[in-house]
Every structure is written in C-alpha cells, then in structure tokens.
Design a protein that fits this description.
This protein has 234 residues and is α+β, with helices and mostly antiparallel strands. It is built from 10 helices and 5 strands; from the N terminus they run βαββαβααααααβαα. Helix 1 runs antiparallel to helix 2. GO terms for molecular function: DNA binding; transposase activity.
Length: 234
C-alpha cells in the first residue's frame, strides 16, 4: 500500500513526532539532547519554521511548529534528522538507521486545538511518570512558556501571546491550563491525527485545508460511498 502523502501548508501549525527505530533510545545522555536542540535551532531558522513547543523524550521527540512555506518542515526535519544520525552513529560507533521511518505530523487548528497540543507535548514527561510536574523536566519548552526561561529556539504563537497583556500575565494564564491532564477522546484524537498524517480541528478547518491543498485531511469511510449502486444504475 502506498504511504499517505504528507499535507503541509504555509502558516498552519503542525504537531510533529519523530521516533527511534523499534522504539530504541535516540538520546543516551544530555549532550545528545543538546546536540539535537542545536541543529533544531539551526535548521528551523534556515528553513523559516517557527518552533512553539517541544519535548525530547528518551526514544522520541514532539514538536509544535509553523512553517512559512509548504515544504519548510520537511526540509527542516530531513536536514536535522540526517545531521543527528551522523552525530549519533559517530558518537556511539554504530551504523545504520536511527529513526522509525519518516516523521509523523498533523495540521492543527489554531483557535480550538493549538493550546491543547501545547499541553499534550509538554505533559509527555508527566504521562510517562518521569516527573510529577512539567516544570521539573528540563528538555521541554514548558519552562519557557510557563516560567519565562529564555530560549532563542522559541517563537511564541500569536494564540499564546493573546493569553495576557505582558509576559508575566501570559505565563500565569498558561500555567493555569495545566491544572488537568489531557485524556479521553481529546488525547486519542491528537494521537490518531498525528500518527495518520491527518488534521485536528473542526469541519470548517478541514474544508479550508482541503481547499488549499486539494488533499483530504480526515480519515475517509471505508468501503463504497452511500448511494453508489443507485448512481451506477442511473
């Protein structure tokens, strides 16, 4: 079966996941994570991709980005992935692949789902029982978005900047979003959309993206469409 073509659109946020092959570790120490962040900074700037949120886990990475061109994220991830594999193989005297195929991604509707995806990404270490609070995990954007830590990787999304009139207000409101875990249908919707390369949003968002790209971004129904036999016989 042919793999689904990736859908990307300039100015539309994307949630990205990149995993290690067979769930193997892609970071063995903090120096590895620092190297990955360094190349993420380099290539996000080169290809004009704004990075709003991230988390580096032991065997996978989550990013929330907005590209300025339709191919910006693909170019960024290809260059980043290639450089990191060269570094990792050289550091650990290994050969072969590191990634589980190509990265996965989904388009994110700004008004309804963007802040939910921020939370989904930065709560990963808590869901994995690595820390009790997202602030306790160093290798994510939570300390930047919620506590004001400076990072030249971070570009706040306009939805984030609307949370308050100044940085302190925005950080306070942002921390208030983390009083509860993401769970249930919302958690599953984000996972499914990302793993299948679809979109998360409402019907108007889906229609807008499909009009822009000419591609379906929701999972179609299996089997023949309703009424197909009647149309055939007309």
């Amino acid at each position: 079966m042919a793999r689904r073509l990736r859908v990307s659109s300039a100015g539309v946020p994307e949630h990205i996941i990149q995993r290690g092959n067979n769930r193997q570790a892609i970071f063995a120490c903090e120096e590895d994570m620092q190297a990955y962040i360094g190349w993420l900074k380099t290539y996000s700037k080169k290809y004009k991709v704004s990075v709003h949120a991230w988390v580096l886990m032991t065997n996978h990475v989550h990013l929330l980005c907005t590209p300025s061109s339709a191919d910006g994220i693909s170019q960024m991830m290809q260059s980043l992935g290639r450089m990191y594999v060269m570094y990792f193989n050289r550091s650990y005297k290994r050969t072969g692949t590191l990634w589980e195929g190509r990265f996965k991604s989904c388009l994110v509707q700004e008004e309804t789902y963007l802040m939910q995806v921020y939370r989904y990404i930065e709560m990963n270490p808590v869901r994995a029982s690595m820390v009790n609070e997202p602030a306790d995990y160093f290798w994510s954007s939570y300390q930047c978005n919620a506590l004001g830590k400076k990072s030249d990787l971070l570009t706040p999304h306009s939805i984030y900047t609307r949370l308050g009139r100044n940085p302190k207000e925005r950080q306070l409101v942002y921390r208030g979003l983390y009083t509860e875990q993401i769970e249930g249908k919302l958690l599953e919707d984000i996972r499914q959309a990302t793993n299948k390369g679809l979109a998360i949003g409402n019907d108007d968002f889906f229609a807008d993206i499909e009009s822009l790209t000419g591609r379906l971004v929701v999972e179609g129904k299996r089997g023949r469409p309703v009424g197909w036999r009647k149309k055939k016989n007309d």
